[in-house]
Amino acid sequence: MPRASWKGFLRLSLVSCPIYLSPATTRTKSIRLHQVWQPKAGRGAPVEDDEEDEQPSRPAAGSFSEDFDDTRSEPPVPTRVALRPHDPHTGEEIEREEVAKGYEYERGRFVTFTPAELKALDVESSKIIDLETFVPRAEVDPVYFSNPYYVYPDGPIAVETFRVIGAAMAEAGEVGIGRVTLSRRERPVMVEPRGAGMVLITLRASEEVRASAFEKSGEKIDPDMVAIAETIIKRRSGHFDPVTFRDRYQEALRELIDAKMKGLPIKPKQIAAPPVLDLMAALKRSLAQETAPAKPRRKAAADRRQTSLLLPLSGKKKETAKPVPVTANQSRRRKA
User: Fold this and answer.
1) Within the chain, where are the H helices?
2) What pLDDT, on the 0 to 100 scale, is given for residue 265?
3) Strands 109-113 and 128-130
4) What is the number of H-type helices and E-type strands within the chain?
5) Using alpha carbons only, how large is the chain's radius of gyration in Å?
6) Which residues contact 75 (CB under 8 A, 6 or more apart)?
7) Which residues of the chain form beta strands (DSSP E)?
8) What phi and psi, each to the nearest 5 degrees, are found at residue 152?
C-alpha cells in the first residue's frame, strides 16, 4: 500500500467512496550544501593583555556545533552552523515544546494558538473532495498546476464506486473540479481518470498566478522564416522520455567536490553567449546542420514486388533475368 498523505472521501452528488492520496512525485537525492562558519585567515592570533580576568568573546550558545579556538595555530577549519530555536536575548537553546504558532498583529506583539484551536478550523474539504463541476481537460491551463497525487480507493468496499466514477469521467471525456484542504490551505483540485485509478492535481489560486504581459506586434511575420523554423521542429520531433534528461548541474557539482577533495586545480568553465546573427541566416544555418529523420525501411516482400523502384547499386551488374516462356496450359488458364 502506498504511503497515504491524506484520507477522506471522494463525492459525486450523493455518491461517495473512501479514498486516500499518495504523492505522485518525489524529490531526488541531490547534493546538499550547508551553511558553515569559516573564520577569516589570520583571525585568532593571540593578543597580549595584562588583564587576566578578561575573557575573549565567544559565539552565543547553540549558534555553532563547536567553539572556535582562538589560540590554535592551524588554519581555520570550516564548521557547520547548527540552526536551533534559541532565546533571541540570551542565545540559550529552548525546548521544542515551548514553540507555538503565532500571528504578529503588531511589531513584536503576537497572538498564539493551541493545536486544538487550529483543529477546530477544519472545513468540509478537510475530509471530503466534492466534485462540484466537470470541464474539458484542455480548459485547465497548466499554469495553474501545482502538486500531483495518485488517488486510491481506501478499502475493498470503495473499489466499485471508485471504478464507476472513474469510468464515467473517462466516457464523458471530462475532469472533475473540487477542493481539498492540505497543510491548512484549501486549494482547488482537478481529478482525472488514469488507467485503473485517478490522479488529483492541486491547482493554484487565481491570485497566485500572474497575468501575462505579452504584447501583440502589428508587424507581419515572414512566412519563409516560419516555414524553415517549422521544418527544424519537424526534424526534431520525437516522444517525451524523462529518463533522457539528467541534472547536469548536480553532475558538475559532484565533479567540483571530487576535485576539491583531491586538491586538483579548478578550471572554471566559460559559457559563451550565442552570437546575434541575421535571423534568416541563422535559420538557414540551423536547417543545414539538422539531419532529416530516418525513413522507415520497406518490407523485404514489398521490395521484391517493386524491383523497378530500386536504385541501381554500384559494382558488378547482375545479369537481367530472362523471361520465362508461357506454356499453352498456363495461357488457357489465364483466358479462362
Assistant:
1) 115-119, 159-172, 223-235, 248-262, 279-289, 300-305, 328-335
2) 86
3) unpaired
4) 7, 12
5) 35
6) 41
7) 6-12, 15-23, 36-37, 79-80, 101-106, 109-113, 128-130, 133-136, 145-153, 174-182, 185-194, 197-203
8) -120, 145
**Which bin fits 155, alpha (ψ -120 to 50), beta or left (φ > 0)?**
left
Q: Report d(CA 39, CA 45) in Å as an integer.
A: 12
Question: How far is it, in rounded angstroms, from Cα 187 to Cα 202?
Answer: 6
pLDDT of 50 > 50? The answer is no
Q: Is residue 293 part of a domain?
A: no
Contact call for residues 79 and 37 (beta carbons, < 8 A): yes
- Give the tens place of pLDDT for each residue, 188-231: 999 999 988 999 999 999 999 998 888 888 888 889 999 999 99
Indicate which CATH number applies to the domain containing 192.
Answer: 2.40.290.10
Query: Which residue intervals of 120-247 are DSSP H helices?
Result: 159-172, 223-235
Contact 81, 36 (CB under 8 A): yes
Would residue 105 count as lying in a domain?
no
The residues facing 67 across adjacent strands are none
Contact between 84 and 62 under an 8 Å Cβ cutoff? The reply is: yes
| Other Cβ atoms closer than 10 A to 202 | 19
CA distance 61 to 33: 23
For residue 130, what are the β-bridge partners? 11
Residue type, 294: A
pLDDT in tens, 154-177: 999 999 999 999 999 999 999 999
Strand partners of residue 192: 199
Q: pTM of the full predicted structure?
A: 0.63
Amino acid, single-letter form, for residue 192: E
Evaluate whether residue 318 is within a structural domain: no
Residue 82 has pLDDT above 80, yes or no: no
Kindly state whether residue 74 falls inside one of the protein's structural domains.
no
Domain housing 160:
6-25+122-207
Domain count along the chain: 1
Cβ(46)–Cβ(71) under 8 Å? yes
For cell 495553474, name the residue: 144
